[in-house]
Amino acid sequence: MRLLKLLILALLTSAAAAQAQDAQALVDAADRYRTGGESLQVETQIQVYGRDGSAEKERRYTVFVQPNRQSLVLMRSPAEQGQKVLMLGDDFWLLMPASQRPLRITPSQKLLGDAATGDIATMSWRDDYQARLVGEERCDIGGSNSNNNVPCWHLHLEAQRKGVSYQRIELWLGKAKHEPIKAELYVQSEKLAKEARFVIDPKQPQWVSEMVLTDRLSNHKETRVRYLARTPRQIPETWLNPMFLARNPALD
Amino acid sequence: MKRAFISGWIACATLSASAADFGGELRLQRNWQAASSDGPLPQAHALQPLIPSGAANSSRAEAELHGRWQALNVNALLRQDHTDGGSRQTRSRFNELYLAHEQGAWGASLGKKIVSWDVGQAFRPNDVVQQEDRRTLYPTTLEGREVVQVEHYGADAASSLVWVQPQRWGEGATAPVASNESAWAARHYQRQGALDLHGFARLGRHSGPSLGAAAAWVADDAWSLTASARWLQRHATAFNPQAGATTQLLLGASWTGEQQQSLMIEAWHDGSNPSDADWRAWQQRNATLQAAHDPLALASQASALQANRLRQDNVFLRLAWQPGAWTWSFDTLWMPADHGRMVTVSGQWQGDRWKLYGALRRFAGPDGSLVAQLPQRQAAVLALVWPF
Fold first, then answer.
1. Could you tell me the domains of chain A?
2. What is d(CA B351, CA B180) in angstroms, rounded to the nearest whole number?
3. What pairs with residue B76 in β-bridges?
4. C-alpha to C-alpha distances, B388 to A21, B142, B277, B385, nearest whole angstrom
5. What is the number of CB-based contacts under 8 A between chain A and chain B?
6. Confidence of residue A174 (pLDDT cuts 50, 70, 90)
7. Mutate to test the interface with B, among A66, A104, A117 (most CBs of B within 10 A)
8. Which of A242, B152, B257, B380 could disulfide-pair with B32, CB 3.0 to 4.6 Å?
9. pTM of the entire structure?
């Protein structure tokens, strides 16, 4: 009898471990649709739309995504030109061109703005979240056609680090190809901050070409984050030093 | 200088075709000031109306252009000011004009450059190179200083050695001290996870040595703490150009909420400001001069009143909220010694390109407080900005 109990316990434990492993594998697959590499230069365009659907503003960013959760965001639009955000793991700095002084910012400050810097610079979930498979569900990918209701895997992602933008993410992936379809992004207080919808590039179906974020916390605006170009790029180590960035060096 | 400036503008314009980060801003600004009825300058004005009251409305148009071509970096400013009922003045300057070169872990700069240090917001004792005028009503790009700078970068560290205003090294002690003198300054920065540590040293040609340290620590998702301290062997005040050793100390905390609201509080002691005893003596002198009906001497007393250098002990509180395109803020600088306060309300709208900024500052406090004796009772600014 005792042996039977041990056997059942072992089976349950290994099933849970296998499920966790499956969940992490699904997250890895979803990440590949967004990044495809550890060292990247991503040209990003942000378009913000008001509640009535009218275009409010457009911004351009160059994002250098590097290994070990390091990234550098350069603001390219005239209204923000010269601003930079550096993220080294859980540590963040903002550099403003008028003062040329690195300013330590908190994870909450990283969330400020319609297109939060964290949304632009964070392109993988693997290193930041522990995934758990909730189960199979049908999810609506938009449109009125009944074919738009597709089978999905529902994953529950719980933050493993203090510096991440969102404490919890509910993520839905396509069952067949594991592409990200939609997500609910929750902040520390367990409030739903944003809903995200992912658009797969029809010409390059291995990539997410756009992430559509709808604010659910304050202004209910829609922000479209378009990935215009992804290029493999390893940047010099000095570029990841906030004091070097304060020199306002050429970063091209 | 004017010819050099024009050459700079032409250089900027030439660079515009090739430089990747060429850009600039056009700014229109309207300033309003309301005169105070208290203090030495308003009292001198009351006795002799030919003495200006210290408050005037004005308009300003500015064009700022910046660009980079290979090692050359330029930030040029063209400004026209018009005071109501007064003259029109056109000025130009380079905010920055320097050569920069990076080689591996080393960097060097030569020329006029903005070099800002320290961790505080409202007060920065260790901003020993730039010595930025803090808490201006409408902050714009700073005017850099002439520097020779060498820097070295590690993975989590950086060291910087700066010779500030080397062209003034040979000037005698009659040169203005501290802010404009030639000096050597050094900074070492070390990152330890969520903690930024800084060490500073400065050797002024006339003001002598000072040592400082600062730290910025992100405590959790919402809170960050800052601290900065500096010891000076000598300093100068409005009443004593040859004062002895003193200290400056800043402590600050900031909190940011999920609804895009933030709170910042800073408290500091600035031993380089005049002491309470100095100010008491100044006020007694004012009373004597007013009783003697001496408007010229009374007006000259006002030169000691600099809005950013009043009491030694100060507390600064700022609340801000950023709903969408708008940013609203309320801040107050309070001086416990006499309960004087400067209260500022500001709003900014950021569109796709245009930016509109407005701020109103009120100088208030009980009779006899230093803030209440500033020439202005309140000041306001409205600015329209078009970046390109």
1. 33-245 (2.50.20.10)
2. 39
3. B65, B94
4. 50, 19, 51, 10
5. 134
6. very high
7. A104
8. B380
9. 0.87
